[in-house]
Structure formats: structure tokens, C-alpha cells
């Protein structure tokens, strides 16, 4: 029989693997939105019926909003609801002005999605911070909750002293299964039954499906979220259907796997070569010194070379579909220790600033009396 | 009307005050035990009926066990049950050998109290880590939980892989009301209803009622504990009666208030002067150089001078009862900012080592296959 | 022979004791200022020649400035120079507006003392953060340095890109002897010889000589500071004389010992009883319900009862001088483990906010282009 | 003109870029060893003159030792000296038994390299922990120093109490230029001049040149190390030549860039396809269900398909040399934000355990009286 210690350690590893699955699953939010994008970027295709896509820029922050109706849900096999993506690269760039702007946009978008879900002014809310506080790139939930304005106990203990412009808010970081030994959704469900909030906001770190999206986007949806792996039927999702009250999920991609990095790199490679091919006889290139590498800032699908050239550059791999390419890379990297789930090395600073930004946005969305700019001290 | 920010800040202060109340209340455990001590130290008094006091030393660690029966409960107006105090000064002294010994004794005592409460081998347990992880001296619960071996999910997910000698254990750090906005006992109760454990172990930092006990003792009881202030009727205690399953509370005094420091100092002062009076013509003293201060390692009640001398030394204050003296000091120090609740400045290192020790003890008590010495790595 | 482990552990303890000595010594700054206060509070005494005392309130923040000339140095046996105390209780009260004001006042006072020491605009400075980063109440230096704007490398690496309004600033946290094994002053001196700054700013946590001053005051002086114990002749002070450039020390009391707590409490006790004696027949007292304790917000020396009453209340102890009382208490508490050096239990939050405040003040004092209010993000 | 804040933020970014350069340079250690490997793996080539390669396994831990003589230095254009690589995957696998074994092997190897460098028993040493404590994957140096036994002050303060079997050791974490504003090598040099040690041990996190090596290997060399980028001529290396005393560098790869991940993946891809091609008609494959992906645990250079098949699989890219492939990928990923430097998401736990392991090894190597297994408490 195995000795206990070995058993425990094996199980720890098992949990680790589960965690990576979990990250795999939690990316769904992004994937769904991404699929919409793919459609959008091919203008030759028809608009998808039941799907409204809108892009805007507020305070210099790009926002993409996708609404899927019940019709769209059937067509796309994606859950109906709102999917919002805020492009908040101010954190990566350590630009505090851009961070403040992104917090304002986040506040506005959360308010909008709350209105759409008919959450009443002054109604009681519960904020749930998912993730493992011992794993920096998974700690967005707990870190944000440290900076969120919690007021429910003030309403209960000394109601008369609470100023206008605040609503009762409670907050909980339930931890992860490897730490508590319990299903995270079970913990949340039992607290919700007792606390009986009018709505729930869930914050979580996500796995990114592209190099470029990591540490740059904030995603909001009212279609629900799975705390941890949704593989089995044991783990219940957190959604309006399962909880009986609106659930708004806010997620930020903080990790990416080696498959995605390799897959994205192969894409860039083909586009880069395609662009170079196109440009090689143009005056701009001719003016450059022979040995200076050409850098292409914004590669797009239009830079993708034709089938034959793709084969010349990358052989059989050059003509695989996105899905085939990822499957192949997964097969290649599946050996233990190769398909690393990684995070940028600057993750500590990033998490601090992003938790600050998300808390600022949530505080301003929930309490009329809190303003992103004037009340930065709450989230310090 | 008050501006929101002011309101919030006032409320934060209010919460702070509540916290000190909380610490005040959570000391009960120690007080009850201490009262027993007082009895014990006066051998002229009769034994209290319904109270069994036992002192022992295992592995060089002093342990005091007090059993109060239903009879004793009435006599003393103290809840019946077991009160155990382990003197674990190895942490303060940074002596790792002494720490290991104290962990072994803790494991034995927790096992004993579990047996007394008829907790079956292999039965499912929940460990609750009370306290605020953002306040170092209040973080014993969360810090210990970081080092506790959690196994319940392994039993649920892959039962066949769990080795013999382990039982299913889950763990939760519910936070404090100022952080979650919810009653801590409500959070725990709802999780217990869902998880349905056979027993509960609660870990918490306590307020000390003496300078000497701080960071030195570990207290265990099966009589229950209040998470936070028990002043109002709102906060439910965590006990066998309220939860329906045995509750074992493990507490360590980590803070002390200025009243206690001043009160203890006045006691030492009287005993010190009493001893000096007695010794002043003895050879030992005569051998000392004139100006060398005399240090008395172990002052006891026998050193207390008589009433008249107490009056000479400390006037009216010298003849106040313990309770009168504390009331007077509370009155004097009650002005905001004077009755500080303080913790030794080395608290960071102390909490790390004590959490390690408590987790070692609990792990070995709960799982037959874990041994304090061989499995130190679990709690590293 | 002792086994190595024992030896190491004993030595660790020895270091601990050294640390408390260190705290004892580092309080000098406060003591000197305090002595001045005592003089000031006795208006019957003549003004001390060579000492200028000034109290002011800027932005609702009380500031006390003491200038000791060479004449005063002889009279008082205190080093000549400036001693400034800022009363910054906004941190303790978690009032962010008051904190911002205190940071502004700190910036102004540091600027003034820099001007007095003829430190030129644009000249190169070194900021030294003393203290042990593993001991929260001793970590003011390292914590502040995390938030200070460091620019020297920018001037060296790409001079042309540095905007006007900044000066070259370097920063170092040298650690403590128990961590590095080296004299802290030696580390600093060798770096200064290499870096050759025009001035040095030293930040350190201090031991408080009164309950009321802890976590409330910021002290500034240009008379130098000792990094660690100054008992032997080994540890060199950091001062204009020893380094050849102006040294500005900024200190905040964060710890207090049990002797001080007990001593202050005995003082309050006498004043409290004195006041009560005086007031006992006044209408105000008569209107209060019998059993309601009387709280005296602001006790002063005028409340001290006469010699006879002091004897009635506190016996022999009631008529000891300040110095005699402290010596007696030190004798009583000197047994290991009783004269605790303690810190308020909320120290974690306090250190974060105070480091923020001090860094804000220093940044604004050093760089014309940085403003306490607009540039809070630097110190987040 | 640029506003100061923008300037500061740009400069922060510049520093970030410098950091990545730094990581790029610090990998040299690994690269040199790797080059040796490549030679070794091609047995058809002759042995390189002046290079001794030895592989061994102690305590189940694989160790590779490479000695380059002055002759080898010329042939290879690599600095002469010892290069040792310890394969310590016990940390990644959270296997404490394997970690203890790796610590023992590290202790032995450090002792050997100390003997080779004629470092005398009992002689005085300085341990330098390079890296940024605010960036988890760069914090190996500071984290290890927290657990190293520092004794120099004990020898200076109370020589007679130090037990046999210890030597005087001091330790310093100088920080990084972005934090101190000073050249790290300048700080170290000035301290060395003052402290005058007989030898220096430098600990640092490295950039990995392969996915598989990250968080798995410990590298030791006596050929010196650069603290930060060695691009310009400003930053001096730390070596026997520059410091006048032996320098032993201990490094652990903790980060990897996207170019390496993509490059390694392309290698695996070719080998994977080559293996599959070879195996496709073998019985083993035939027994597998059609749609079950084949996983190849240990791909080696022998699996690499021939030139023609490489072209079929990966086009032009399939036949690039290692250097050409990396250059191409660097060109493609060079656009800001794409060539991420990343670290495994479990980095927090990894750093804690690796710092523990390295400190255990160093303590046992330096002090005869410390034993990896018995004295684990020093590094807890």
C-alpha cells in the first residue's frame, strides 16, 4: 500500500491538474466573446441573427458589447445574455490615468448590466471573490475583496448612521477546493441561502485564449460562471438560474498555457511572412538597411498569405485549422511538465493594480455616493 | 447630513471598537481557567465540589486540566466541560525542540478531548479558523488553516486513493464582520448545515488577562466559543448545543490591554517590595553590591506584603481587590487612545511559529498516519 | 560544550535583547524633544537660553519646532539643531483627509530643514530606510522606501529624458545586524563613500516614551541618528559630522514598553484622582448619575494632587520622581518576559498608511514636480 | 515638454525592458552548460579538448559537472571553471523527500567547489541575494537570504559563545537598480571592500533557455555572474577577477520567454511527428484505438525526421538552424507585449520551497555543525 505521504503528494498533484482544468473551463467567457469577434472580423459573412455587436470608446477606453438573444442562443449554441469586454491596458503600462479611466468605464458597464437585470437601487448585494489567495495569478477575487467597500453590517448594526447613497453589501472569498476540502459552489450556495441577497457579483481570474489579451481585458457577463472545473456534473455553476437572483461575473485573464503561446506564435509567423512577402518590393522596405529586421506592429487576417505560401512557410502545419492546430500542439505538449500554465513575470504588481481598478469600478457602480476619482483611498 | 466618507470612516472606527470588545469577550476561556487557578493557589480553601484540577508535565511541557461537572457548573456559574492549558513558551523562546514537544502534547490533549466527546475514528470534521487575516495578532485561525492537512475533497473525488490513517477534513476561514459584512456565526452555521460534519474544531486568537500568559499558552475547551463579541443577543455562540455536534475550541492569547499591563505591574510591584522587605537582612542580599538591583524571578502570592505595608507602598490602591483595581484602571484609561490593545513587537515571527505548532498538533490528532516529528513538512 | 543549535538559539535571544536596547536608544530623538516640552509646560520657569520653541497649526495639523543653538547645547547637554514634531493622528483615525494634510506639512517641514542645511535644488540625495522588514513595527524604513520615487538611475542612464522638477535620488534598506551579520552603519557608510550624495535622509521606527505619542507623531531632526544600539563605541552614529553631508532623520514611534505603559498609567491615575477630588462638589459632577464613571478627556499637570494626597492615593510610589518611578518599574519588570515591548494590535494597517504618508511627504519635498495630492499614485 | 508623470512612467517601462535584457544575460550560465550538453549528446563528434564532462546520480538526484580548462576556454570561447547542474524536480513535484536529497547534493557540490577554490575552513564569507523582492520569480536571492544562518555578528560581539563548527557569515540583498537607483555591483563592491570576506556566494533567479529546465535545475559555477544586464560596459561582473576573492554563483531558472516556448514547441513537434512516422506500422501503435492520441514521453534527437520530412511538416521553418529559428521568432514576437517573459502560475509555492532548499544546502555547506536533515528548522 502507498504510504500516506506519497498519497497526499500525489493527490496534491491531482489537484494541481484539476486547477489547470479549472482554468481551462473558466476561459469559456472569453471564448464565447472571441467567437463573436471572429464572426465580426469577416465582413463577407452575414450578420448572425440574434446577436448584436457594438464597439465604442469611452474615456479613451475601448469597449466591446455583445448581446445574444434567445434566437442567437440557438443559432450559436451560446447562452443568451450580455458579454462585455473592456480593454484596460493601462495596468500593463502602469499608466494611472488610464487605470482611472478604465475603472470609470467598468463602473458604467456594471451599472448598465445591473439595470438590464432590473437590480433595484439600494437592494442588497453579495460580492464573491473566487480563487486561491496563495497563488498570485489566481488571487484576483480575494485581492479585489480586500478593497471593496463592505456596508451590510453597518445597515444591520446602526442603520440610522448610514449615509444616503450606499447600499448594503457583503463580501466573501470562499477559497478553492484544494484549500477548503469543500465544493466552492456549495459554500457560496449555503451563504446565499442564509444571506438572501438581491444580486451577486462574482470576481475571478481567467485563463486567456490569446497572448495579447492577458492582463489587458476585463470581461463582464450576466450569463453566469463556474467556480472551478465544470467537467463533472458535481460542480454547479453560479448563474441566475441556479441561484434565483441575477449573477454578474467580472473576469480578468491572468494566465495562458504553452499551447496558446505556440499557437499564437505560429499565427503571427504566417502573417508576418505574408506581410513581408507583400511588402518586399515596396519603397518603404527598399529604404531600410539590408539587415534590419522588419517589425509589423499590427498584423491582421489580411496579412495571412494564401494556401500555397502557407504550405511553403510552415508545411502541413501551415494549413491546419485553428482547432486542428491547437489539438496537435496539445498532443505534442501534453507530456507532463511541458504544457505549462504561465503568467507574466510582473504578475505581483499587475494583480495589485488590477484589484485596485476592479474594486474602484465595483464600488462606484454599487454606491451612488462613491466616485472613482474622489474616493481612490477606499481601494488603496 | 454627514458626507459619506465621514460616515464610512466613523463606522470603521466603530468597528474597531467592536473589535476590542470582541477581544474582551473572547478572553472568557482564559478567565474561567484562571479563576480555577486562583482557587488552586489558595490551599487553605476547600476544594470546589464538582471541579477536578490536574497538573502534569509531559515532554517537559506543563499541562493543566480542569474538569467542571454539572455540579461544578452551578457552584461556579461556569459552563461544565474540559478546560486545558498547555504552557508552550518554546515559541517565545524560538526553541524548535520545545515547539515540537508542545505540538505533541497538543495532539495528545486534542485526541483526549475528542475521545471524551465520543468523536469516532474516521468521522468527518470541519476546522474553522476565526479572525482577521489583515491583522497579524488576530490571524491565528487563518494562518493555522494554511498549514492544516485538508482531505475531504480527496475522499469525495477519488476515495480509493486515500490511504488508511486519514479522515475527511474540511477547513474554512470565514473572516470577521468588518471584512465580510455578515455575522461570522451565520457564515459558519450555513456551511455546517450543508457540510454536516461530525465535529468542529475552532481556532482563534484570544486576549490575555495577564502579561505572562501572552504568546505562551494554548488553551483547549469543549465548552464552545463566541466568534466575535457576545454582548448583544445577535451573535450566536459556537457550541455543542448550538451546532448539534461537539465543538473543540483552541485559543492562544496574542494581545493584552493597557489595563492588564498596569494591573499586573502593580501586583508585581507589591510582591517585589514584599520580597525585598523579607530578604533585606538575609545573607544573600548582603553579598550583593549595594547598588545592584535585586531581581526576583518567581514572585508568588506569598511575597505579597501585609495590608499595612501595601498601604505604605501603594496607598489606597495597594488594598483594592483585583476587580476594584481593574475597574479603577479602566476608568482612568478609558479615554480614547489610552487603553491600547497591544501585542509584543515580535508578533510576526510568533504567529508563524505558533500557527505551525497548532497545525502540527491538529494534524497529528486528526490523522493516525501523521506524526508531529516526521511530518513537519506539511506545516512548513 | 554547548551544542550548536542551543548556541544559535541563545544567540538569537541575545539579538532580541539587543533589539530592545536598540529601540531604547532610538527613542533619544523623542526624549530630547520631550525634555523641551517639560520646560515649556512650566511657564513659571524662565525660558532656556539658546532654545527657541514654536508651535503652529498648518492644514489643521499641529507642529512643534524646537531650535537649539550652540549655547543651548551647552546649557541642556543636548545636541544643537532642529527638532520638529508633527502630530499626525489621522493615520490612527484612518482619516485620509487628515493624512493628506499631514503629508503636506511633512513635505513643508522637510523642505525647511533642507533649506536650513543649505541643500541645493537638484542636488543628489540618498534615502536610507532603517529597520527589520520581518518585524512589522520595525519596518517603517523599508516600507516607506517601497513608495519613494527613485530617480538616480534615470539621470545616469538617459539623462535627456528626465523631466525638469526632479532630482537624482537613490534609496537603500540596509537591514538590521541580526539579519545581515554586519554593522548597519558600516553598510551605509560604504555605500555613501561610493555614491557620494549631497545629503542623506534616514527613516526609522522609534520607541515611544509615552502611550499617547505612539502611532501619532512624526519627528524630524538634523542632529543625526544611531542605526541600532549606541551603547558600545562600535556603532557609529549617522550625522553631518560622521558622514560629511547633512543628515535628516525622520522617525515615527511605533512601539512602547510595559514600563512606559505602567508609568503613564500611574500618572493618569494621580491626575484622574486629583481632578475628581477637585470636581467632586461641582455642579457638573452632581448632575451625573451616581454610578456613572467620570471620564476626564484632557488631564494636565494642573490636575496633579498635592504631595499628601498623592501619598494617600499611591503611597510611597505616589511621590517618586519621574526618573525614580521608571527605575523602580524597570526593576520590577526586568525579569525576562515581563517588560514586553509592545505595539498596538492594528499595527499592520498603521504601518501601511504611515509609510504612504511619509513617502508622500518626502517625494513632494524632494521633487518640485511632485505634489502630495495629485501624485498619490506613486505611493499606492 | 513631457509632463513629469509621463516621463516617470515611460522610464519605468524602460526599466522593465532593461529587466528583460537582464534576464536575457543572466541565462549565460545555463547556455554555456547547455552548449556542452549538445556536444555530449552527439557521440559521433570527438570529445572537446580541455573539457571534462561527468554525470552522476547521488541520493537519486542527477548531477552534471563540466570542467573547462584554460585550453577549453580558448577552444570554446567560454570562461574556464566549473559548471554544475543539479536536477531538482522534487520542488516542482512538491516531494519533500526529493527536496531534502537535492539539498544534500547541493551542500556537497558547494563544498566541492569551495575546496577547488581553496576556501579555508572557518574563513569569513558573504552571501549576496540578487533580485527584486517585489517580483516573485526574481526574488530567489532575497527569499533564500531570509533562511540562511547569519553568524558574523556573533563572532564579533561575543566570540567565546560561538560553538565550534560554525564560520562567520554575513548576508546582503542589495535590491535591483529600479528600486535603489544605484548599480547593484557598486553596492556589492563597496560592501565587500568594507567587510573583506574570504569568499562570496551569489544567489540569483535566471532566465531558462528551455521549457523543461524551468523550476527544475540548480546551477552552480565559479566563473562569476553579472548582477543585471551586462550589455554596456558600466555594469561590472562579480567574479574572482573583479573582486579578488572566489565567487560562487548559485542560480535557478524561474522565467522563460515566449520565443523559447514557441521554439521548444516547434522542436517537440518535429520530433513528435518523426517518432509517429517511425512507429506508425509497429504493433504497439496498431493495438491502440484509432482516435487515441499517441504521447511520447521522452523525445530525443533521434526522433528528429530527415530534412525532407521536416520540410513536409513545417515548410521552410522545419529546416532552420536553432539560431535561425530563434531569430525569426524574436522578429515575429518583438512587437511590444508579445514576447512575454513568463513564469509558471504556481511560482509562489515554488519560490518558497526552492529558497528553503537552497538555504538548507548553503547552510550545511558552510557550517560543519549544520546538517540538512536535522536542522530543517533554520530554514522554516
Protein topology:
The structure is a homotetramer of 380-residue chains.
Chain A: H1 4-26, H2 28-41, E1 51-58, E2 61-68, H3 70-76, E3 81-87, H4 96-116, E4 125-129, H5 140-145, H6 152-157, E5 169-172, H7 177-180, H8 184-195, E6 199-207, E7 217-221, H9 240-243, E8 247-257, H10 258-279, H11 283-287, H12 307-314, H13 322-333, E9 341-344, H14 347-366
Parallel strand pairs in A: 4-5, 4-6, 6-8
Antiparallel strand pairs in A: 1-2, 2-3, 3-7, 7-8, 8-9
Question: Would you mind describing this structure in some detail?
Answer:
Four copies of one chain form a homotetramer. With 380 residues, chain A is an alpha/beta fold. Chain A is 43% helix and 16% strand. The first copy, chain A, has helices at residues 4-26, 28-41, 70-76, 96-116, 140-145, 152-157, 177-180, 184-195, 240-243, 258-279, 283-287, 307-314, 322-333, 347-366, and strands spanning 51-58, 61-68, 81-87, 125-129, 169-172, 199-207, 217-221, 247-257, 341-344. At the A-D interface, α1, α10, α12, α13 and β9 of A face α1, α10, α12, α13 and β9 of D.
Brief description of this entry?
4 copies of one chain form a homotetramer. By secondary structure, chain A is α/β, with parallel strands linked by helices.
Features:
43% helix, alpha/beta, homotetramer, 9 strands, 380 residues
Q: What is the count of helical runs of chain A?
A: 14
Quaternary state of this entry equals: homotetramer
Query: From the helix content, strand content and strand pairing of chain A, which structural class follows?
Result: alpha/beta
Helix amount of chain A: 40-55%
Number of strands of chain A: 9
Q: Which descriptor suits the 3D outline of chain A? A: globular
* Rounded average pLDDT of chain A: 81
| Low-confidence runs of chain A | 1-28, 42-46, 229-234
Amino acid at each position: 500500500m502507498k504510504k500516506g505521504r506519497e498519497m497526499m503528494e500525489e493527490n496534491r498533484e491531482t489537484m494541481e491538474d484539476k486547477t489547470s482544468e479549472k482554468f481551462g473551463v473558466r476561459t469559456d467567457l472569453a471564448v464565447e466573446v472571441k467567437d463573436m469577434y471572429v464572426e465580426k472580423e469577416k465582413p463577407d459573412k452575414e450578420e448572425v441573427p440574434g446577436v448584436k455587436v457594438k464597439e465604442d470608446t469611452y474615456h479613451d477606453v475601448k469597449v466591446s458589447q455583445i448581446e445574444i438573444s434567445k434566437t442567437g442562443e440557438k443559432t450559436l449554441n451560446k447562452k443568451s445574455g450580455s458579454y462585455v469586454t473592456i480593454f484596460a491596458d493601462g495596468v500593463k503600462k502602469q499608466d494611472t490615468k488610464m487605470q482611472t479611466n478604465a475603472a470609470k468605464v467598468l463602473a458604467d458597464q456594471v451599472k448598465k448590466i445591473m439595470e438590464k437585470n432590473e437590480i433595484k437601487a439600494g437592494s442588497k448585494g453579495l460580492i464573491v471573490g473566487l480563487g486561491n489567495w496563495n497563488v498570485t495569478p489566481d488571487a484576483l477575487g480575494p485581492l479585489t475583496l480586500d478593497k471593496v467597500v463592505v456596508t451590510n453590517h453597518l445597515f444591520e448594526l446602526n442603520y440610522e448612521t448610514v449615509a444616503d447613497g450606499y447600499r448594503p453589501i457583503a463580501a466573501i472569498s470562499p477559497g478553492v477546493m484544494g484549500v477548503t476540502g469543500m465544493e466552492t459552489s456549495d459554500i457560496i450556495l449555503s451563504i446565499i441561502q442564509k444571506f438572501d441577497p438581491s444580486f451577486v457579483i462574482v470576481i475571478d481570474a481567467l485563463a486567456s485564449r490569446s497572448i495579447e489579451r492577458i492582463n489587458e481585458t476585463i470581461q463582464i457577463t450576466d450569463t453566469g460562471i463556474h467556480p472551478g472545473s465544470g467537467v463533472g456534473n458535481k460542480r454547479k455553476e453560479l448563474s441566475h438560474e441556479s441561484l434565483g437572483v441575477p449573477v454578474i461575473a467580472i473576469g480578468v485573464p491572468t494566465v495562458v498555457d504553452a499551447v496558446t503561446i505556440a499557437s499564437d506564435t505560429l499565427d503571427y509567423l504566417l502573417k508576418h511572412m505574408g506581410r513581408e512577402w507583400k511588402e518586399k518590393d515596396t519603397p518603404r522596405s527598399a529604404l531600410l538597411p539590408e539587415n534590419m529586421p522588419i517589425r509589423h506592429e499590427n498584423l491582421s487576417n489580411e496579412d495571412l498569405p494564401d494556401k500555397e505560401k502557407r504550405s511553403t512557410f510552415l508545411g502541413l502545419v501551415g494549413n491546419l485549422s485553428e482547432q486542428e492546430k491547437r489539438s496537435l500542439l496539445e498532443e505534442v505538449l501534453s507530456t507532463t511538465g511541458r504544457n505549462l500554465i504561465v503568467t507574466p513575470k510582473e504578475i505581483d504588481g499587475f494583480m495589485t493594480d488590477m484589484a485596485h481598478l476592479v474594486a474602484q469600478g465595483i464600488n462606484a457602480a454599487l454606491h451612488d455616493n462613491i466616485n472613482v476619482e474622489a474616493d481612490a483611498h477606499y481601494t488603496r
